Amino acid sequence: MLIETQNLTKVYRLKEYEVEAVRDVNLAVAEGEFISIVGHSGSGKTTLLSLIGGLTKPTYGRVLIDGIDIWSLSDEELSRMRNRKIGFMFQFSSLIPTLTVRDNMLLPAALSGKVGSAEMKRARELLELVGLADKINAYPTQLSGGQQRRVAIARAFMNSPKIILADEPTGDLDEKSEMHVMKLLKAMNEVEGTTIILVTHSRELAAQTQRRLVMKNGRLFEKKNFL
Amino acid sequence: MKIDIIYLALQNIKKRKFRTIGVVIAIAIASATLFSSIILMKSMSSSLELGIAQLGADIMVVPREAEEPLSAILLGSAPSKHYLSRKYEERIAGIEGVEKVAPLVFLETSEQGCCFKPGIFIIGFDPEKDFIVKPWVEKQLGSLAAFETIAGSGYDWMPGFKVYLYGFPFTIAAKMPSTGVAYFDKGIFMPLDRLYWLAKRSREYEDIADLTLRSGQVSAIMIQVAPGEEAERIAKAIEFYFPELKAVVAQKALGNVKKQMLMLLRSLFALSAFTWLTAVILVSVILSMSVNERRREFGILRALGATKRFIFGEVIAEAYILATLGSVLGMLAGYAFLTGFQDFVINYLNMPYLIPNKFYVALISLVIIDVSLLLSTVASFYPAYRSAELEPYEAIRSGE
Ligand SMILES: Nc1ncnc2c1ncn2[C@@H]1O[C@H](COP(=O)(O)OP(=O)(O)OP(=O)(O)O)[C@@H](O)[C@H]1O
Ligand SMILES: [Mg+2]
Q1: What is the interface pTM, i.e. ipTM, of the complex?
Q2: In this model, does residue B122 exceed pLDDT 60?
Q3: Nearest in space to B353 (alpha carbons), one of B99, B123, B46, B121
Q4: Which positions in chain A touch B317 (Cβ < 8 Å)?
Q5: A-chain residues within 8 Å CB-CB of B305?
């Protein structure tokens, strides 16, 4: 298994009450799978993705990637894993405002210590795939919200990660762009064998994935009789 | 194309102008204060030392009731109007251990009357006995003709220029090099006999301010002690034989002047410590605020693979760049101020003042940049640490 969670639980302890954002999730994702997670707002989808990506520490349970418990790694190792193996697409705009589109695109490469002509070429190609090659020198504030999202989507593929964790990547995109992004994800899954976990509100998009899951109050269920 | 910590820091500095300017100004002010204080003190103390060496006297003898003469000569306050008789010269020369004696008169032209420049020091010397002024004068020309004078380095009069002193025109025959002795740099020089003559004429003419100086009176008798002799002992001997006189040991008086300067130095350092403290607090607050605004950015960087060390390093790098920039600008401003100020200090405050050499200035600049880097580490350490320790998910969520 590429990704495996064991009794994964995240509890937020607030002053007056506790929120069990993720409860006892046991999920196994094989390499090359394209799965989707749907669920109501507040059901714990973002928290689950963050747990899998090592952005937040579980209260209980483990996350294994390639069989390695990610919280047994040092900060250097965990950061390296995020950099090389995982591409994040966040629910909200996630570009660095002080950097140009090009520099934002190059960040994952820069953080792994290599920015050469190959990386520049890849950045340009990925931008072309999301239709924003002409914005390469723009700053994020000079782009629309949807354009910013598309740059972030392109950026997630920069280091050719094995895993894409996509949190409503098409949230504020029009239908045409949405379909375009979905095509891109599918292509990456099929051509490069990228494993994708897609969180979405859209039944249509979910229907296009190989495996559909639903989150309810922090619990994750397999949804076999969907459609 | 290199996208690293320094690059990210620079982009952030460039894009967040308000914050950048705030931090740079705070550090510039602190650096300018410290730099100016050190350079000012150094220049004063080295010009005092130079001055006393240039003066070439070990002991100065003045009337008991006269004020301490050394700081007046070096710092250029008004000369004493208490005179002593030249008859002491022979008697002091007779004391064992005294090598040379030379009489000097110091006058300051006053504001009243017509036809002369006020605020000039007139220095009268005895061409026969003198060892104080003559080395300087002889370097310029053999001897002075009547109505010729030598101008101190503080004036921009060229040789040939005429100055009116108590109604009489004196031609500038030569210019002195800069000595660091205020009386010399702002003085004009003439033989004692000429000065006595001038004083006499000033009293004869109605429309000329009177000089109270009488023939045979001097302001001070300068003494050079024989090699191996103790100036202190000779000064005591002089005061023992002539209780109506005061014998001031130059080195000791210099020590006292320096002590006064040390007090000034202390308050300058207190001031600069205060500006640094303010700068550190200000920079720390500005950085904390800025880092708070950027939580999300740091979270994204972490998600993209930045380590805690990277985030920590970026915040520190920014602080270093701003500190270096601020320090350099501050010191440039300080240097411009000090050199611009030089004339003001010399002419209006009558303070000795020689800008130290380039090497010393460079050394002080390096020290100040170090101080600035050290203190900016202090100011940025906590914000940097906090940013690095943020949980990426929490950081990304902030500001939603
Ligand atoms: N840092 C936090 N502190 C406290 N509670 C939190 C925190 N993060 C998430 N929660 C809570 O955990 C629950 C799950 O949140 P999460 O963001 O994972 O939901 P979601 O399914 O992604 O929702 P949406 O579809 O609106 O994005 C919510 O009740 C939320 O309020
Ligand atoms: Mg969410």
Answers
A1: 0.95
A2: yes
A3: B46
A4: none
A5: 79-80, 82-84, 108, 111-112, 159
Could you tell me the two tokens for B400?
């939603």
Q: Considering only CA atoms, which of B111, B118, B92 is closest in space to residue B103?
A: B92
- Residue with more model confidence, B357 or A3: A3
The one-letter amino acid code at A205 reads: L
What is the nearest CA distance from B325 to chain A, expressed in angstroms?
20
Q: Residue B249 pairs with which residues in a beta bridge?
A: B59
Cβ–Cβ < 8 Å for A126, A154: yes
Distance from C-alpha of B123 to C-alpha of A113, rounded to nearest angstrom: 74
Can you tell me which residue has the tokens 């020590």? Answer: B255
pLDDT tens sequence across B18-38: 889 999 999 999 999 999 888
Q: How many helices (H) and strands (E) does chain A have?
A: 7, 11
* CA separation, residue A94 to residues A140, B324, B389 (Å): 10, 31, 20
Residues B171 and B183 sit within 8 Å (Cβ to Cβ): no
The string of pLDDT tens digits covering residues B6-21 is: 999 999 999 888 889 9
Q: How confident is the model at residue A147 (pLDDT cuts 50, 70, 90)?
A: very high
pLDDT for B141-184, tens place per residue?
566 778 888 888 888 888 888 888 877 888 888 888 777 677 88
Say yes or no to pLDDT of A134 above 80: yes
**Cα B159 to the chain's mean position, in Å?**
28
Residue A134 has what DSSP assignment? G
Burial label, B169 (beta-carbon count in 10 A; 0-12, 13-18, 19+): exposed
DSSP A59: S
Cβ of A41 closer than 6 Å to ligand 1, yes or no, is yes
Q: Is A91 in the pocket of ligand 1 (CB under 6 A)?
A: yes
Any idea how long chain B is? 400
**What is the C-alpha separation between B1 and A116, in angstroms, rounded?**
7
